[in-house]
Design a protein that fits this description.
It is built from 16 helices and no strands. It has helices spanning about 5-15, 30-35, 40-55, 55-70, 75-85, 90-105, 110-120, 125-140, 150-165, 185-200, 200-215, 220-230, 235-250, 255-265, 270-285, 290-300. Helix 3 (about 40-55) runs parallel beside helix 5 and helix 10 packs antiparallel against helix 11.
Length: about 300
C-alpha cells in the first residue's frame, strides 16, 4: 500500500461514515495517480502537463490530442491543448481548443483570457468582445464574493491589456499554477472529496474533484464521483455526462456502471437500469457489492 493511499484511507476514516469508495471492487479502490497509468488518457494527460511545465509545447500538444481522442469533452485537456498552441503562436488553433474548454467548463477563467487574446491575435475583435461580455457577466454574478473573483478580474485585465497594447504576448511560461501541484496532492483532494460526499456536502466535493481532475487528468474514478455528486444534488444531465465519460475511458468501471444504473432508475428508465445490472453480472460472475446495490435499487421499482 502506498504512502499516499494510507493517508487517503486515514482521511476517509475520520468522516465516521460508510465510504462510497470502499466498495469499488475494481472501480476506484486505489488512489487515482497510482492507478492512472493503466488508463492511457490519464498517463498521456500527465505527460502533457509535464511537457507544458517544461515549455515543450509541441510535446504537450501531441499528448493532449491523444487524451482528447478518448476524453472528448474533458475541459482541462482542451485548455492545455489551447495553451500548447498559444505557446507555439498558433492562435487560430488555440482559439479552437480554448473555445471547447470554456464550453465544457465555464469556470476556467484563464482559458477565457487566452481565448479572448487568441481572438485579438487573429484579428477577430468582435469575438474577443463576446468573451469580455461573458467575463463581465460572471463578475457581476460573483460580485467580488466568489472563490473565482480574482481569476475573473485577472482574465478581464489580460484581454483589456492586449486591446490597449496590441501585439504578441509573452509565451515562455503558460503553465497555470494548479498543474504544478503534485500527484499526491491530487490523490488527497480526491479522498477528501469522497469524505465530503459521505457528508452530503456535494458542492464542496465537486470543487475538490474538479481540482483533482486538473492535476490528475480525466481519471475514471474522479469522473465517476463527479457524476455521483452532481446526481445527488439534482444535476442529472451533468451526472450522465460524467458517467458516460468515465465509461468511455474505462468501460468495465464497476462503480460507474452501478451509478449509471441508479441514474436510470431515478429517471424511470428501468430497462436501461437492467442493462447496467446485466453488465455487472457479466463482470462479477461470483458477485460484487455493486450488483447487490443496483439490485436493491431496481427491486424498489414497479415491475
Amino acid at each position: 500500500m502506498t504512502r499516499t493511499w494510507m493517508i487517503a484511507l486515514a482521511l476517509l476514516a475520520l468522516s465516521g461514515a460508510a465510504s462510497p469508495i470502499a466498495n469499488a471492487a475494481g472501480g476506484g479502490s486505489s488512489a487515482p495517480s497510482s492507478s492512472g497509468p493503466s488508463y492511457d488518457p490519464v498517463e498521456e494527460y500527465q505527460k502533457g502537463v509535464q511537457a507544458l511545465r517544461d515549455q515543450n509545447y509541441k510535446a504537450a500538444e501531441r499528448a493532449m490530442k491523444r487524451v482528447i481522442k478518448v476524453a472528448k469533452r474533458d475541459a482541462n485537456s482542451h485548455y492545455i491543448l489551447g495553451l500548447a498552441h498559444f505557446g507555439q503562436e498558433e492562435y487560430k488553433s488555440s482559439a479552437k481548443a480554448l473555445s471547447k474548454a470554456v464550453r465544457y467548463d465555464e469556470t476556467l477563467y484563464d482559458a477565457h483570457a487566452k481565448l479572448g487574446m487568441s481572438y485579438l491575435l487573429t484579428d477577430k475583435p468582435e469575438k474577443a468582445e463576446k468573451v469580455l461580455t461573458d467575463l463581465n457577466e460572471a463578475k457581476a454574478i460573483c460580485a467580488g464574493t466568489c472563490d473565482q473573483a480574482s481569476a475573473i478580474e485577472t482574465a478581464i485585465m489580460q484581454i483589456e491589456g492586449m486591446k490597449s497594447q496590441p501585439g504578441p504576448t509573452e509565451t515562455s511560461d503558460l503553465a497555470p499554477p494548479i498543474i504544478h501541484a503534485s500527484l499526491d496532492h491530487g490523490d488527497l483532494l480526491y479522498a477528501d472529496a469522497v469524505r465530503l460526499i459521505n457528508l452530503e456536502r456535494y458542492d464542496e466535493a465537486i470543487t475538490e474533484l474538479k481540482t483533482a481532475a486538473a492535476i490528475l487528468g480525466p481519471h475514471p474514478d474522479v469522473l465517476t464521483y463527479l457524476g455521483f455528486a452532481h446526481r445527488k444534488k439534482g444535476a442529472s444531465d451533468e451526472a450522465l455526462t460524467y458517467y458516460t465519460e468515465a465509461l468511455t475511458i474505462a468501460p468495465e468501471h464497476l462503480n460507474a456502471i452501478e451509478y449509471l444504473g441508479e441514474y436510470y432508475v431515478e429517471q424511470g428508465n428501468y430497462a436501461a437500469a437492467q442493462v447496467q445490472l446485466m453488465k455487472l453480472e457479466a463482470l462479477c460472475p461470483f458477485g460484487c457489492a455493486q450488483i447487490e446495490e443496483l439490485r436493491d435499487w431496481i427491486g424498489d421499482t414497479p415491475t
